[in-house]
Amino acid sequence: MAWTKTIAYTLATCSLWLPTNADNVWPNEATDELEKMLFEQQNPFESSLATFAVPCSASGLAIGRGFGAEWIRNAYHDMATADVQAGTGGIDASIVFEKDRPENPGAGFQETLDFFRPRYTTRSSLADLFAMGAVFGVGGCSNGNIILPYRAGRVDATGPGPSGVPEPQEDLATHTAKFVRQGFNTTEMIALVACGHTVGGVHGVDFPEIVPNPQPPPVTGPFGNDNTVFFDTTTSNFDNQVAKEFVANISQNPLAFGHNETTRSDFRIFNADGGDMISRMAESLDFFSQTCATLLERMINTVPPSVKLTDVLQPLPVKPRKWSIDVNADKTLTVSLTLRIVDTLLGGGIQALVKPVSRTGAALPATSPVVIGNISTSTCDYPNCGPSFVYLDYNINIPAEQGISSFTVDITDGTGKTTTYNNGGAGFPLSDAVQPQMSLSTQTTKTVNGVTLQQLNVTAAVYNADQYTNISLIVPQPSNFSATISPWVAEVAPMKASGKIAGTNYTLYTGSWLASDESAPQHPFDVLATGPKGSASSTFNSWGDVPFVL
Ligand code: HEM
Ligand SMILES: *[C@@H]1O[C@H](CO)[C@@H](O)[C@H](O)[C@H]1NC(C)=O
Ligand SMILES: *[C@@H]1O[C@H](CO)[C@@H](O)[C@H](O)[C@H]1NC(C)=O
Ligand SMILES: *[C@@H]1O[C@H](CO)[C@@H](O)[C@H](O)[C@H]1NC(C)=O
Ligand SMILES: *[C@@H]1O[C@H](CO)[C@@H](O)[C@H](O)[C@H]1NC(C)=O
Ligand SMILES: *[C@@H]1O[C@H](CO)[C@@H](O)[C@H](O)[C@H]1NC(C)=O
Ligand SMILES: *[C@@H]1O[C@H](CO)[C@@H](O)[C@H](O)[C@H]1NC(C)=O
Ligand SMILES: *[C@@H]1O[C@H](CO)[C@@H](O)[C@H](O)[C@H]1NC(C)=O
Ligand SMILES: *[C@@H]1O[C@H](CO)[C@@H](O)[C@H](O)[C@H]1NC(C)=O
């Protein structure tokens, strides 16, 4: 094997790539991926997850199921075993290990996992993704009326936690105590349950003692029918209808008015304060929405004190979205960049000027005055998710001897005023020290003992390679392929010099990584050069940019 497993990925990386400070600057390993998923919902590069919560009654699941409702319930059940006094549990994705418990019936947890797991990376914990699922569910189902502020930084559990999700047959004292354990008093319990039970419903296939099966007529769709009785008559709207119908004695909600008195947990909870809170929520949609926004934000931010969440994510006004630096045979570098810009910053003519800075810090000679290329946009799946963006392609050739270290962007708005975007002062860093050369790299498969494994061969250009003693290709992989999720480990393949690029100080290095398991994920890869005088790296490179060969 060309590669060897090393220590856990977090240990391997923290000393080499320090996270940036709380300023909203690029790059930021803690937030860049999540910022993209949160704000660039419909974008030209990747499919949107938020789109599945729009409309809230989304199809693609059994009749009666919706993604938004599932994602909200998934987040609650993940959080619901928290003990805030003890400082344990909370949103930590431990639900993935707890799906078989009697307190977690239904397909919703597996369906949520299946959706979010492909986005699970070293830069997006599953716990952060589950919290984002709740943001999408609430945003999509409220049609943008409620936008939960989103922070990153949740840490995934490595196994199941204690049990303790509330169940409908339990009495009020038990529920009250469980919500206190989760950090919510009686008033807040009433509200949080009403906020959760404004979308979706009780699925007869999961709770036959609450919703008897079958409910005539037996309508079936391609994914079946799970016999749902919704909590209110506007199941697809995140609104106060559930509260209104409760106080009006409309017997829609099976957890409030169902035939089985034992499982009328909503009835007991909504009356826990004599009906005061639920009446206030019924009276005012604004009060309902503000209350739910506050409590659901607290729900998704329930984490142990040892876990430090980031500031609320804000969209960067200007963000490098994709970039590459190719070293050419004619002793030039081709710098290719796709910039994402908040569209309201730009005037009608889209006047933006990229000002590159050389390796030694000198302003490079005038470049193309106007960014060119295919302009495409990103928009929200539901209102108010954030600004719209435009993407601008930019390409320049720079003498390899001068190189590039950073750039700034001048943008002229609709009034003719020009503003320089310099990423908090230092410019947008763009190092040409180590760069994978995608056109020289390949991905393929290799059959070993009858098992088809992925193989990634990367060639990278390394500037002044003499200064490094170790140049490696790093592909993070699950530490345990048998587990639902497991901590990432850095699988390391050594890279060897494969030739100098004449007339430049670049040397090509090549390394080959072979997956250890047929289910190996195509996790973004790094090229890392280290030595006594320092280190350089190119991190989180996408397999999508590497040509596939048979
Ligand atoms: C005492 C507390 C609670 C009890 C006993 C309870 C019980 C239930 C039950 C029995 C279902 C039906 C699930 C199924 O058929 O698969 C359900 C659905 C749901 N619950 Fe709760 N719940 C509670 C609190 C909450 C809270 C606090 C939230 C979120 C803030 C929440 C969100 C949801 C959602 C969104 C659904 C619909 C899921 C779907 O349609 O797939 N629940 N709940
Ligand atoms: C619950 O806490 C809120 C403030 O966080 C407070 O306004 C409310 O009165 C409390 N309810 C109970 C029953 O203590
Ligand atoms: C009502 O629910 C309880 C608790 O799940 C269950 O034990 C009981 O059998 C149910 N009763 C009926 C009539 O379905
Ligand atoms: C709802 O039912 C309760 C209990 O039967 C009753 O006290 C209350 O007046 C009813 N409310 C309405 C609006 O009908
Ligand atoms: C614009 O996009 C089309 C289709 O994706 C592509 O063929 C063309 O080369 C692009 N033009 C520029 C300037 O990037
Ligand atoms: C290569 O590096 C040396 C030492 O840093 C420098 O003097 C020289 O100009 C560089 N040559 C090229 C072609 O970049
Ligand atoms: C990838 O590298 C391995 C190891 O050097 C080599 O055996 C294999 O042929 C390479 N695959 C491709 C497609 O270049
Ligand atoms: C090279 O660096 C990688 C990544 O830090 C490390 O895992 C590997 O052990 C190093 N190799 C040698 C020979 O030092
Ligand atoms: C890997 O995960 C499986 C399934 O959860 C578990 O049984 C096994 O003990 C784990 N192996 C290690 C080495 O942790």
TrEMBL record:
Record bears the keyword rRNA-binding: no
GO molecular function: heme binding; metal ion binding; peroxidase activity
EC class name: oxidoreductase
Ranges for domain Plant heme peroxidase family profile: 125-299
Domain of life: Eukaryota
InterPro entries listed in its UniProt record: Ccp1-like (IPR044831), Haem_peroxidase (IPR002016), Haem_peroxidase_sf (IPR010255)
Biological process annotations from GO: cellular response to oxidative stress; hydrogen peroxide catabolic process; response to reactive oxygen species
Signal sequence annotation: 1-22
Pfam families, per the entry: peroxidase (PF00141)
Keyword set includes Metal-binding: yes
Keywords for the protein's UniProt record, in alphabetical order: Heme, Iron, Metal-binding, Oxidoreductase, Peroxidase, Signal
Enzyme Commission number(s) from the entry: 1.11.1.-
Family: Belongs to the peroxidase family.
Name this polypeptide is given: Peroxidase
Species of provenance: Trichoderma harzianum CBS 226.95
